[in-house]
Amino acid sequence: MNKFHGKCNLFKITFKYFKATIIYIMITCCSGFLTVESPKNELVSEEVFRDPSTANAAMLAIFSQMCNELGGPYSISLYTGYTSDELNCHSTDPNLKMFYNNKILPGNEYLLQELWSPGYKYIYGCNAIIEQLGKQKAIPVALSNQLIGEAKFIRAFWHFYLLNFFDAIPLIISTDYTVNSVSSRFSKKVVYQQIINDLRDAAELLTETYVAVDGISKSETRVRPNRWVAYALLSRVYLYNDEYSNAVKISSLLIDNNPNFRLLKDLNTVFLVGSVETIWSLQPSNKSGFNTQEGRNYILTSIPQIMGSSQTSTISDHLWNAFEKNDQRRVEWISSFQNYRFPYKYKVAVGSELNEYSVVLRLAEQYLIRSESKAQQGLYEEAVRDLNTIRNRSGLGDYSGPLDKNSILESIQHERQVELFTEWGHRWFDLRRTNGIDSIMIQAMSEKKSTWSSYERNYPIPQLERDKNPNLDQNNGY
C-alpha cells in the first residue's frame, strides 16, 4: 500500500493544492474515464469552475483518488477488518498490529495518513466545488446540479465514515481555513443532521439516471452517483440514527426499483462490472495493472506476507465459523492458498482489463436495512421476509427462530456479518452501534491473544492534528 508522506495540517489544504490535484488528474489518471486535455496555462480556482470540462474534472479527481489512492476500499476494509473479528494479521508492521490488537496509539501513521487525512481532503475538495459552482453562471444548470449533488453526496459519505471511526469529529462545510483550522469536534447528533441534509440535497439535485464521464449523457456504468446512490446511503444513515420509519421508506424505494436493481442468484457475478445488484461502485484506473485494490491485496498467491500491508491477511476463525452449513457465500466468497483462507469476493488479482469495480453500495444491504428497521418497529413477520430473501439467495432456509425483537435482531446482525464481510467497514460499524460489542470483542481479542476495553470502539484522534489544533480534544481512554 502506498504511503502519504506529507505531514501538513489537513485544514491547510488550499485552492492551490486542489488546483494542482485537478491538473494532475487531467494529465495522468483515469484513462477511459477522464479524457479532459491538460490546460495550457495555470488555472486559478475561479477559472477552474468557469469551464465545464475543468469543473467536471474537479469532481472526477475525487472519485479517482478515492478508488486508487489512500482512504479507499482496501484501507477501510483492512483496518476495520483487523479491529473487528473478521481478519487475521500476519504482518509484522507495528502500525498494522496496533489495529489488529486494538491498541492504536494516537501517533499511528496509518490512522492519520489513510483514514483521517484522506477523508478531510475529499471533504475539502467537495466544499470547493459546492462554493465555486454556487457562484458561477457559465456552467450549464444540468451539469452544475450534477456536480454539486455529487459533491454533497461525497461530503456526506466521508463525514459518515469519519464519524464512525472517531465518534465526535470536526464538521467541515467550507474552505475557510481560519474556521477549519481551529474547529472543535461536533456531536454525533449534529454531524448526522448535516449528513442527512447533504444527502437530501443530493437526491434533489441528482437525476435517477447514471451519467457518463461528461456528467450529462446517460451511462450504463454505475460509477457516478445519482439519486438512487444518495438514497442508498441515506437509508443507512437513518438506520444508524434510529430513524426506522425513514429507513424503511427509503430502502423500499430501492428494493422496489426493479429491474434497475435486483439481487443476483449467482454469487460470482455480484461484484462484476455491470452487476444489477450494484448501486454505486468506484472505477479503478486501467493503467494500474490490476482491477480492484481488494483483489490485488487480499488474494493470496503464496503464504501470507509478513512485510507491508498487501497479501498479509486471512479470514479469522471467528468469521469462518459464523457461516452456517451450506451457506454458499463461504464457498464462493472465500478461497484459500494451502490452509490460508482469504476474502474472494473480488476474483481478479492482476490484469489491466477491467472486469471488476470496487462496489461501495449494493442492494443486499438495503434488504438488511429494511429488515432491521422493521424489527425495531415490531413488524416481525415483514422483517423476517426481508431476512429470508438474503438467506435464500445464499442457499439457506428460512429463519426458524422466535418472532421476538431480540431474536430477530440477532439473526439480522449475523446475516450482516456473513453477507457484508470485508466491505467498507460494515462489521466494525455494526459492532460499534449495537450493544453486543463488548462480549463479542472480548472473545475475539482472546483469540488474538490481546485484551479489549470498551473505549477502543472509537479510534483515537491523530496526535499530529491535535498538536496543530488546540480545540481538538481526545477520545476517552487514549
UniProtKB/TrEMBL annotation:
CDD domains: SusD (cd08977)
Annotated Gene Ontology cellular component terms: cell outer membrane
Sequence intervals crossing the membrane: 17-36
Signal peptide start-end: none
Subcellular location: Cell outer membrane
Superkingdom of source: Bacteria
Domain named RagB/SusD: residues: 345-478
Domain SusD-like N-terminal as annotated: residue spans: 77-239
Pfam families from the UniProt entry: SusD-like_3, SusD_RagB
Keywords of the record: Cell outer membrane, Membrane, Signal, Transmembrane, Transmembrane helix
Family: Belongs to the SusD family.
Protein name listed in UniProt: SusD family protein
